Amino acid sequence: MPYxxxxxxxxxxxxxxxxxxxxxxxxxxxxxxxxxxxxxxxSPESLAGLRAALGLDRPLPAQYLSWLAGALHGxxxxxxxxxxxxxxxxxxxxxxxxxxxxxxxxxxxxLALPLGMLAAVRQGTAVDLGVLVLSQVGVxxxxxxxxxxxxxxxxxxxHLFPTGGYVPWSASVPGxxxxxxxxxxxxxxxxxxxxxxxxxxxxxxxxxRDHIRTARAKGLPERTVLLRHALRGALIPTVTMxxxxxxxxxxxxxxxxxxxxxxxxxxxVLSAIANRDVPLIQGLVVFxxxxxxxxxxxxxxxxxxxxxxxxxxK
Amino acid sequence: MLxxxxxxxxxxxxxxxxxxxxxxxRAAPPTAPPTVAPGTGALTPAGSPxxxxxxxxxxxADPDGLDPHKTVAAATFQITRxxxxxxxxxxxxxxxxxxxxxxxxxxxxxxxxxxxxxEGVKFHNGRTMTADDVKYxxxxxxAPETASPRAKDFAVVQSVAAPDAKTVVxxxxxxxxxxxxxxxxxxxxxxxxxxxxTLRDQPVGTGPFKVVQWVKDSHVxxxxxxxxxxxxxxxxxxxxFRVITDPSxxxxxxxxxxxxxxxxxxxxxxxxxxxxxxxxxxxxPFNGIQxxxxxxxxxxxxxxxxxxxxxxxxxxxxVIDAAQFGIGVPIGSHMPPVTEYYVDLAGRYPYxxxxxxQLLAEAGYPNGLETTMILPQPYDFHIRNGQVVADQLxxxxxxxxxxxxxxxxxxxxxxxxxQFALTAIGATGRLDPAPFLSxxxxxxxxxxxxxxxxxxxxxAAQGAVEADAARRREIYAQMQTLLADDAAAVFLLAPLSSxxxxxxxxxxxxxxxxxxxxxxxxxx
Lengths: 314, 524
Fold this sequence. Notes:
The complex is a heterodimer. Chain A is mainly alpha-helical. Chain A contains twelve helices and no strands. Chain B has a six-stranded mixed beta sheet with strand order 14-18-13-17-15-16. Chain B has a four-stranded mixed beta sheet with strand order 1-10-9-8, covered by helices on one side. In chain B, strands 4-5-7-6 form a four-stranded antiparallel beta sheet, covered by helices on one side. Chain B is globular and about 75 Å long. Chain B is an alpha+beta fold. Classes of the chains: A mainly alpha, B alpha+beta.
């Protein structure tokens, strides 16, 4: 079976499994959505009435199958809490989280590539040691803590940035950038820390290879050797890691959106779980899973582009 | 396939992380214990109120829709006081005063209540409010298809009539003492029929502010309603409720001057805020209590001596100092000191570990016992109470295993299922003691503690219909005493609520119901 087809099949199976597991987990969680909507003083009759209206009294397999049938047609159901289509809620929140993740990734890659290369080229020097120590510290610091630190120093102390809240791009581009700057930095720093080490090690690996020696022997300038020959090889593991880290970014944004009061997907996930909003949890997890799987898929395709030994059609 | 497996693993851990995190969020569970208090510290505007200005208020949770008939969420009613009006309202001392109704008169048998409405009151859509709107609003609230979670507050209503434009007549199935005060709550708001279908997102009321914009999980923006029926009120041009769920971010926004008010400051922040020159703090007794609920039907707590031993083993002031940073007053029964029905029973079981051990020995536990206490997430103040109490109980030989439980699970297992021995929890007071104390009636669905005392049940039935104020006070005093004598729970404390404002903000009033009323607020 061709590589591409196998990957696509795996993608569909993964999503099906994710949806099934989510459905099972949500229903194993104790807690009654009807009671969380009506409050604990509600009468048993009104609770039963609401459960029936929400379709929660039907057998679980029937609930799952009707959800699946809807999802295949792009209908993720209605949120119990918001009384709005799940798809619409996701569409409203996605721009916030997507902007945040994109900015954080840009920042992370933009910082990690030059720093990692620098450390590799200056291996064993104070510069190398400095980069490594900083990256160790970065891995150890949780994003939410960095976020609070940034708020206290740059937003409360100096008023350089707002302490939280979101300005839509459509309202003001500088405003949007200002509102996303601190959360993107907080979210990207742990990612930078991971990527720097990876880029450094991959570069060192490449620099020790025969083709680099050949390139140097040919008398190519060091600049060309590093950027055209060594970096290309070092990019393969880096791209994989960025792809994987994107998934973690979505997870990290759950925390960061709390700290910076951003109305994104992460906030929606939290409130959906707290309210046992089953269709919303289900829709969100499947949506996020689809994103992560799609990112992985893209990484695989990029792989083939970077490494001529792989072919998409074999 | 390795990476696909990684991806699914990632998703599962993401979901798991989200589940765990749900515990950290100080969300607004529909039954969140809210804040209130009649008057001692209510602030009277110094100088003359100035008109104009924009106020920014930080709230901890997004409202659960703005349709007052379709939710129980505290986060909704805190805001909707500014959008809708009710027939009557509670003042800062909890007294019932006119709002949309100027006067009211019960019949001699207590079955018919006649309200005379204020005239010329306008809805935000420009239409004049009449008695028909009142009739419509209560019929909507009571209709089964509305599924209002608060309909049962008005289950006693037989019918509502509007004989003329300014008269509304309620016919009750039975006399009801709490009926009038129930009308003062946000869920009894008067709404216009023509906007009913869209109230959730585009509310239309008669209140002092109209809603300009609601961005979910971000903010609710209000603008002064110029036709509000009180001339010159409100003072503010605009007001915005901004959702900031994280407590440290909330404080940061206040310190940075981005928000003017935090209506509920966590007790751990109070000491620091008192030191800050830019900020001021209004501390008022909260209409509510915190306590350790005991399952009266489960051995060994079915034995009154064991429950009394629990009470003697707990040093309430030490709990307040250690768990609530010294903020709160000790109580002895299920009633906060701010209500006029309160009887001081705080000294009923003085702290006495020896007495506790002796009672345990008499009950057949000379070597102490082991039990479990459930602590509800994300209420850190309840969790701290439970931890301190458990530590104190250990000193008399009661070993308590602590178990934290997410709120949704707590509701199902502890509140509904009554599967617990001890749990740290609170209760928010009502304007009337009847709905508050009825939670201990043996047949009540709310009697999670399985308390059973026929004398208490009889008194509750009398109190709900008694029209004579002095006699009612006597009944509720007896009920509080019974709860204390039976050691129905370990009643700990009544908290204070701490409103924190930036200096220029004036006129914030704290009420014994959970509302953030901006009518009197102005910026100097």
